[in-house]
Amino acid sequence: MRSPVPTRLRLMNKVRAHLDASFLSDAVLALPSVYYIGLCAVCNIRCPYCPRQNFPDEVDNGLMSFEEFKKIIEYLNYAEIVFLFGIGEPFLHPQFFDFVREAKKTGIRTSTNTHGMSLNAENREKIIETGLDEISISFDGADEKVFNFLRAGADFKTVVGNISALQNLKKERGSLTPELQFATVISRHNVRQMPDLVQLSRKLGIKRIVFTNLITLHKENAEVSVAKTDLFADSYEKAKLQGKRLGVEIEYWPQHPFPWKKDPMPEFDPERRIRYACPDLWRLGIIDRTGNLKSCCYYENMSGNVFQTPVPDVFNNDLSRALRRSLLDGRLMECCVNCGMLRQTSIEIARAELENADAALAEARASGLLADADIRLLESEIKKYRTFLKELS
After folding, report:
1. Phi and psi dihedrals of 226, rounded to 5?
2. Domain CATH number, residue 237
3. Which residues lie across from 343 on neighbouring strands?
């Protein structure tokens, strides 16, 4: 994976991000290191379990203004990666490649997601020309029948052909990018195909698959989910073995399969003094096409609008800090229950991240990109967080 171009701002942000990851404060020092920017909420296929088909009146169908996007481009100078997509097909945005070019000027790593039908000859040329770093291809079936059902409106043979053509073009141009990966949603329709998907990915030169479980949006589809079942566990283990044999990286991203199901909230006990944390609340900026920012995919409320208010002010406003404080105080929100990102924090985690901050500062100092004043400022911030740790202990 190609790293973003080191800059003074990015190096300082990396040190501060480690301090934030100690979860010793509800205020953050760093700006978001990861952005999801929803530039396109338009799609031209009809996946049967997508919110677009299940809640058509609630799904936005619009495009982010490129001029508005340029209002926030300066903040990408601090970040590691930006994902340019949305609840739609990003290549349908007529200015998609303008977004990529503008982001690349900051030296950030750029990524997007596609259903694969958009990887046509014209777009393949522009993908190579703009230097797009990474593309995740939504690929849910190892054969034509299953794929064409789960990706209704897309075509298995066309997508496979597009991937092969893009891989060939990369070789012709001597380009290492974009790196390709499969993003695969697992359900009863395709769970037994997981090892076959690994084999197909290897055949297509794709070295990474991210599996995730289906989010069933209606109770009547509950039986389609295989989350936390022996069937999924068995297929996943077979996929991992296949991946190890073929040199394909396998990852699983758990999601709450039943959003309509109200799980019992753990009772708050002030005597237990449990401190929770969620890395995304301290590092992630999710921006929809109108500029509304939040730090969690599942929390409905927005923190503010970054087209109207600077990102630093939104990321550290009262609402954002209150969300972080609720976790640190041991008070979970409903959307946190059963979330794969939720974790209990500890003194050991905090201590390890402060050591990581020291290491990141040493790396930044060695780069020669920081001024003496920058180094002194970061040293004082690390010292402050060591005081926080001592007080917590």
Report:
1. -120, 15
2. 3.20.20.70
3. 277
